[in-house]
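Need the bound structure for 3-phosphoglyceric acid, inputs here:
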Amino acid sequence: MKKVLVATDKPFAAIAVKGIRQIVENAGFELLLLEKYTDPSDLIKAVEQADAMIVRSDLVTPEVIKAGKNLRIVVRAGAGYDNIDLPGATAANVIVMNTPGQNSNAVAELVFGMMVYQIRNQFNGASGTELLGKTLGLHAYGNVGKNVARIAKGFGMEVFAYDPFISAEIIAKDGVTPVADLQDLYSKCQFVSLHIPANDKTKKSITFELLSKMPKGAMLVNTARKEVVDEESLQRIFAGREDFRYVSDVAPDCLEVLKEKFPGRFFVTPKKMGAQTSEANVNAGLAAARQIVEFFENGNTMFKVN
Ligand code: 3PG
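Answer from helper R.:
Posting the output first, comments after.
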Protein backbone atom coordinates (compact mmCIF):
# COMPACT_ATOMS: atom_id res chain seq x y z
CA MET A 1 0.00 0.00 0.00
CA LYS A 2 1.43 3.40 -1.00
CA LYS A 3 2.14 5.81 1.84
CA VAL A 4 1.52 9.54 1.42
CA LEU A 5 3.24 11.73 4.00
CA VAL A 6 1.84 15.17 4.76
CA ALA A 7 4.75 17.00 6.40
CA THR A 8 3.82 20.50 7.50
CA ASP A 9 5.76 22.46 10.05
CA LYS A 10 2.96 25.07 9.72
CA PRO A 11 -0.12 22.81 9.60
CA PHE A 12 -3.04 23.04 7.20
CA ALA A 13 -6.49 23.82 8.64
CA ALA A 14 -8.13 20.63 9.98
CA ILE A 15 -10.72 20.68 7.19
CA ALA A 16 -7.94 20.50 4.59
CA VAL A 17 -6.29 17.54 6.33
CA LYS A 18 -9.67 15.79 6.38
CA GLY A 19 -10.07 16.33 2.62
CA ILE A 20 -6.54 15.17 1.88
CA ARG A 21 -7.13 12.03 3.97
CA GLN A 22 -10.32 11.27 2.04
CA ILE A 23 -8.63 11.56 -1.35
CA VAL A 24 -5.64 9.50 -0.27
CA GLU A 25 -7.68 6.75 1.42
CA ASN A 26 -10.27 6.58 -1.39
CA ALA A 27 -7.38 5.78 -3.70
CA GLY A 28 -6.39 2.90 -1.40
CA PHE A 29 -3.30 4.67 -0.04
CA GLU A 30 -2.28 5.35 3.57
CA LEU A 31 -1.89 8.86 5.00
CA LEU A 32 1.02 9.64 7.32
CA LEU A 33 0.80 12.96 9.14
CA LEU A 34 3.73 14.93 10.55
CA GLU A 35 2.68 18.36 11.78
CA LYS A 36 4.41 21.10 13.78
CA TYR A 37 7.69 19.19 13.92
CA THR A 38 10.51 21.06 15.56
CA ASP A 39 13.57 19.19 14.35
CA PRO A 40 14.55 18.47 10.71
CA SER A 41 15.45 14.93 11.84
CA ASP A 42 11.72 14.30 12.43
CA LEU A 43 11.11 14.89 8.73
CA ILE A 44 14.07 12.71 7.76
CA LYS A 45 12.67 9.89 9.87
CA ALA A 46 9.10 10.26 8.58
CA VAL A 47 10.10 10.33 4.90
CA GLU A 48 11.86 6.96 5.19
CA GLN A 49 8.54 5.17 4.78
CA ALA A 50 6.88 7.51 2.27
CA ASP A 51 6.18 6.91 -1.43
CA ALA A 52 4.85 10.45 -1.82
CA MET A 53 5.06 13.62 0.21
CA ILE A 54 3.06 16.84 0.49
CA VAL A 55 4.88 19.85 1.97
CA ARG A 56 4.46 23.62 2.30
CA SER A 57 7.53 25.78 2.98
CA ASP A 58 9.14 22.81 4.73
CA LEU A 59 12.79 22.37 3.81
CA VAL A 60 13.22 19.37 1.56
CA THR A 61 16.99 19.18 1.80
CA PRO A 62 19.40 16.72 0.12
CA GLU A 63 19.25 14.70 3.38
CA VAL A 64 15.47 14.44 3.17
CA ILE A 65 15.61 13.29 -0.47
CA LYS A 66 18.31 10.78 0.42
CA ALA A 67 16.29 9.40 3.33
CA GLY A 68 13.23 8.92 1.11
CA LYS A 69 14.26 5.53 -0.24
CA ASN A 70 10.79 4.83 -1.70
CA LEU A 71 9.99 8.44 -2.53
CA ARG A 72 8.65 8.97 -6.09
CA ILE A 73 6.95 12.35 -5.84
CA VAL A 74 6.98 15.51 -3.71
CA VAL A 75 4.17 18.03 -4.12
CA ARG A 76 4.66 21.51 -2.73
CA ALA A 77 1.12 22.56 -1.78
CA GLY A 78 1.62 26.13 -2.94
CA ALA A 79 3.46 28.13 -5.54
CA GLY A 80 7.12 28.64 -4.62
CA TYR A 81 9.39 25.59 -4.58
CA ASP A 82 12.64 27.30 -3.54
CA ASN A 83 12.50 25.16 -0.37
CA ILE A 84 13.06 21.96 -2.33
CA ASP A 85 16.38 20.50 -3.46
CA LEU A 86 15.40 20.16 -7.12
CA PRO A 87 18.73 18.86 -8.49
CA GLY A 88 18.82 16.25 -5.70
CA ALA A 89 15.25 15.21 -6.42
CA THR A 90 15.92 14.94 -10.16
CA ALA A 91 19.05 12.88 -9.56
CA ALA A 92 17.08 10.52 -7.31
CA ASN A 93 14.24 10.23 -9.90
CA VAL A 94 11.83 12.01 -7.60
CA ILE A 95 9.22 14.14 -9.34
CA VAL A 96 8.55 17.56 -7.83
CA MET A 97 5.29 19.45 -8.49
CA ASN A 98 3.65 22.58 -7.17
CA THR A 99 -0.04 23.58 -7.14
CA PRO A 100 -0.03 26.91 -9.00
CA GLY A 101 -2.83 29.38 -8.34
CA GLN A 102 -4.43 27.46 -5.49
CA ASN A 103 -3.50 29.86 -2.71
CA SER A 104 -3.15 33.04 -4.73
CA ASN A 105 -6.34 34.81 -3.62
CA ALA A 106 -5.34 34.35 0.03
CA VAL A 107 -1.94 35.93 -0.62
CA ALA A 108 -3.52 38.76 -2.62
CA GLU A 109 -5.97 39.59 0.18
CA LEU A 110 -3.08 39.79 2.65
CA VAL A 111 -1.41 42.39 0.41
CA PHE A 112 -4.34 44.72 1.03
CA GLY A 113 -4.63 43.84 4.71
CA MET A 114 -1.01 44.87 5.23
CA MET A 115 -1.21 47.99 3.04
CA VAL A 116 -4.30 49.35 4.79
CA TYR A 117 -2.85 48.53 8.22
CA GLN A 118 0.31 50.47 7.44
CA ILE A 119 -1.23 53.53 5.72
CA ARG A 120 -3.56 53.86 8.73
CA ASN A 121 -0.49 54.00 10.98
CA GLN A 122 -1.04 50.49 12.32
CA PHE A 123 -4.39 51.66 13.72
CA ASN A 124 -2.68 53.78 16.39
CA GLY A 125 -5.24 56.59 16.25
CA ALA A 126 -3.20 58.98 14.09
CA SER A 127 -4.73 60.18 10.82
CA GLY A 128 -3.66 58.01 7.89
CA THR A 129 -4.19 57.92 4.13
CA GLU A 130 -6.27 55.95 1.59
CA LEU A 131 -5.60 53.67 -1.37
CA LEU A 132 -8.21 55.28 -3.64
CA GLY A 133 -6.60 56.95 -6.65
CA LYS A 134 -3.06 55.80 -5.75
CA THR A 135 -0.69 53.99 -8.12
CA LEU A 136 0.12 50.31 -7.54
CA GLY A 137 2.91 48.49 -9.35
CA LEU A 138 2.87 44.73 -9.66
CA HIS A 139 6.37 43.36 -9.93
CA ALA A 140 5.40 40.19 -11.85
CA TYR A 141 1.96 39.29 -13.10
CA GLY A 142 1.41 35.62 -12.24
CA ASN A 143 -1.50 34.16 -10.31
CA VAL A 144 -1.01 36.34 -7.24
CA GLY A 145 -0.33 39.52 -9.22
CA LYS A 146 -3.50 38.96 -11.23
CA ASN A 147 -5.58 38.62 -8.05
CA VAL A 148 -3.96 41.70 -6.54
CA ALA A 149 -4.92 43.64 -9.69
CA ARG A 150 -8.53 42.46 -9.43
CA ILE A 151 -8.84 43.57 -5.80
CA ALA A 152 -6.94 46.84 -6.41
CA LYS A 153 -9.62 47.90 -8.86
CA GLY A 154 -12.21 47.65 -6.08
CA PHE A 155 -10.07 50.04 -4.05
CA GLY A 156 -9.97 52.43 -7.05
CA MET A 157 -6.21 52.15 -7.51
CA GLU A 158 -4.42 52.72 -10.81
CA VAL A 159 -2.58 49.46 -11.53
CA PHE A 160 0.64 48.92 -13.52
CA ALA A 161 2.52 45.66 -14.05
CA TYR A 162 5.92 44.51 -15.21
CA ASP A 163 6.41 40.89 -16.27
CA PRO A 164 8.84 39.85 -18.99
CA PHE A 165 7.11 36.45 -19.29
CA ILE A 166 3.54 37.70 -19.84
CA SER A 167 2.49 39.54 -22.96
CA ALA A 168 1.43 43.18 -22.71
CA GLU A 169 -1.90 42.24 -24.36
CA ILE A 170 -2.79 39.77 -21.60
CA ILE A 171 -1.96 42.32 -18.91
CA ALA A 172 -3.87 45.11 -20.68
CA LYS A 173 -6.94 42.87 -21.08
CA ASP A 174 -7.28 42.91 -17.27
CA GLY A 175 -7.39 46.72 -17.26
CA VAL A 176 -3.79 46.87 -15.99
CA THR A 177 -1.18 49.08 -17.69
CA PRO A 178 1.85 47.03 -18.79
CA VAL A 179 5.22 48.75 -18.41
CA ALA A 180 8.31 47.81 -20.38
CA ASP A 181 10.92 47.92 -17.63
CA LEU A 182 11.36 47.85 -13.89
CA GLN A 183 12.75 51.38 -13.63
CA ASP A 184 9.53 52.62 -15.15
CA LEU A 185 7.36 50.55 -12.80
CA TYR A 186 9.12 51.78 -9.66
CA SER A 187 9.16 55.40 -10.93
CA LYS A 188 5.44 55.43 -11.56
CA CYS A 189 4.15 53.62 -8.48
CA GLN A 190 3.77 54.79 -4.90
CA PHE A 191 2.98 51.19 -3.89
CA VAL A 192 4.95 48.27 -5.34
CA SER A 193 3.94 44.69 -4.62
CA LEU A 194 6.44 41.88 -5.24
CA HIS A 195 5.28 38.66 -6.89
CA ILE A 196 8.52 37.13 -8.11
CA PRO A 197 9.90 33.74 -7.06
CA ALA A 198 13.21 33.47 -5.19
CA ASN A 199 15.88 32.11 -7.52
CA ASP A 200 19.44 32.91 -8.57
CA LYS A 201 18.24 35.73 -10.81
CA THR A 202 15.86 37.40 -8.36
CA LYS A 203 17.62 37.09 -4.99
CA LYS A 204 18.68 40.55 -3.74
CA SER A 205 17.27 42.04 -6.96
CA ILE A 206 15.24 44.73 -5.17
CA THR A 207 17.99 47.29 -4.80
CA PHE A 208 18.45 50.83 -3.52
CA GLU A 209 18.59 51.98 -7.12
CA LEU A 210 15.08 50.67 -7.80
CA LEU A 211 13.55 51.70 -4.49
CA SER A 212 14.91 55.23 -4.71
CA LYS A 213 12.92 55.72 -7.94
CA MET A 214 9.61 55.38 -6.10
CA PRO A 215 7.47 58.52 -5.68
CA LYS A 216 6.76 60.20 -2.36
CA GLY A 217 4.91 58.08 0.21
CA ALA A 218 6.56 54.93 -1.14
CA MET A 219 5.55 51.53 0.22
CA LEU A 220 7.13 48.21 -0.74
CA VAL A 221 4.89 45.20 -0.15
CA ASN A 222 6.57 41.81 0.01
CA THR A 223 4.42 38.69 0.05
CA ALA A 224 6.99 36.92 -2.15
CA ARG A 225 10.21 35.91 -0.36
CA LYS A 226 12.48 37.86 1.99
CA GLU A 227 15.52 36.83 -0.10
CA VAL A 228 14.48 38.90 -3.13
CA VAL A 229 15.04 42.17 -1.25
CA ASP A 230 18.61 43.37 -0.83
CA GLU A 231 18.59 44.16 2.88
CA GLU A 232 21.47 46.64 2.77
CA SER A 233 19.46 48.61 0.23
CA LEU A 234 16.39 48.33 2.42
CA GLN A 235 18.20 49.83 5.41
CA ARG A 236 19.72 52.53 3.22
CA ILE A 237 16.39 53.63 1.76
CA PHE A 238 14.79 53.66 5.23
CA ALA A 239 17.63 55.84 6.50
CA GLY A 240 17.57 58.23 3.53
CA ARG A 241 13.83 58.60 3.03
CA GLU A 242 11.54 59.45 5.91
CA ASP A 243 8.51 58.64 3.72
CA PHE A 244 9.51 55.03 2.86
CA ARG A 245 7.48 52.14 4.32
CA TYR A 246 7.89 48.34 4.11
CA VAL A 247 5.34 45.63 4.81
CA SER A 248 6.37 42.03 4.49
CA ASP A 249 4.92 38.58 5.01
CA VAL A 250 7.83 37.26 7.07
CA ALA A 251 10.65 39.11 8.74
CA PRO A 252 13.85 40.24 7.03
CA ASP A 253 17.16 39.20 8.59
CA CYS A 254 17.72 42.85 9.58
CA LEU A 255 14.51 43.00 11.64
CA GLU A 256 16.27 44.08 14.85
CA VAL A 257 17.89 47.04 13.05
CA LEU A 258 14.53 48.10 11.62
CA LYS A 259 12.93 47.83 15.05
CA GLU A 260 15.60 49.96 16.62
CA LYS A 261 15.99 52.62 13.94
CA PHE A 262 12.67 52.84 12.09
CA PRO A 263 9.83 51.90 14.45
CA GLY A 264 6.30 52.34 13.10
CA ARG A 265 7.51 52.50 9.49
CA PHE A 266 7.35 48.77 8.78
CA PHE A 267 5.23 45.74 9.54
CA VAL A 268 6.20 42.09 9.27
CA THR A 269 4.20 38.98 10.05
CA PRO A 270 5.72 36.71 12.71
CA LYS A 271 5.18 33.64 10.51
CA LYS A 272 4.43 33.45 6.78
CA MET A 273 0.69 34.08 6.68
CA GLY A 274 -0.15 34.72 3.02
CA ALA A 275 -1.52 31.26 2.30
CA GLN A 276 -2.71 30.61 5.83
CA THR A 277 -6.50 30.54 5.30
CA SER A 278 -8.66 27.44 5.42
CA GLU A 279 -9.80 28.12 1.84
CA ALA A 280 -6.22 28.24 0.54
CA ASN A 281 -5.27 25.18 2.61
CA VAL A 282 -8.20 23.24 1.13
CA ASN A 283 -7.45 24.42 -2.42
CA ALA A 284 -3.72 23.69 -2.30
CA GLY A 285 -3.82 20.63 -0.03
CA LEU A 286 -6.53 18.81 -1.96
CA ALA A 287 -4.94 19.71 -5.30
CA ALA A 288 -1.67 18.22 -4.04
CA ALA A 289 -3.39 15.00 -2.92
CA ARG A 290 -5.22 14.69 -6.29
CA GLN A 291 -1.98 15.26 -8.20
CA ILE A 292 -0.33 12.43 -6.26
CA VAL A 293 -3.21 10.02 -6.93
CA GLU A 294 -3.24 11.03 -10.61
CA PHE A 295 0.49 10.43 -10.81
CA PHE A 296 0.34 6.93 -9.33
CA GLU A 297 -2.85 5.92 -11.16
CA ASN A 298 -2.33 7.50 -14.58
CA GLY A 299 1.28 8.68 -14.70
CA ASN A 300 0.07 12.29 -14.93
CA THR A 301 2.99 14.67 -14.41
CA MET A 302 1.23 17.96 -15.08
CA PHE A 303 2.65 20.68 -12.78
CA LYS A 304 6.04 18.95 -12.66
CA VAL A 305 8.76 21.54 -12.01
CA ASN A 306 11.94 19.42 -12.35
C1 3PG B 1 3.66 29.76 -1.63
O1 3PG B 1 4.76 29.78 -2.20
O2 3PG B 1 2.72 29.06 -2.05
C2 3PG B 1 3.41 30.66 -0.45
O3 3PG B 1 4.57 31.34 -0.09
C3 3PG B 1 2.80 29.95 0.73
O4 3PG B 1 3.69 29.26 1.54
P1 3PG B 1 3.18 28.37 2.78
O5 3PG B 1 2.43 27.20 2.23
O6 3PG B 1 4.40 27.98 3.52
O7 3PG B 1 2.28 29.22 3.63
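Comments: The first strand starts at residue 3 and ends at 8. Residues 183 and 210 are 6 Å apart (CA to CA).
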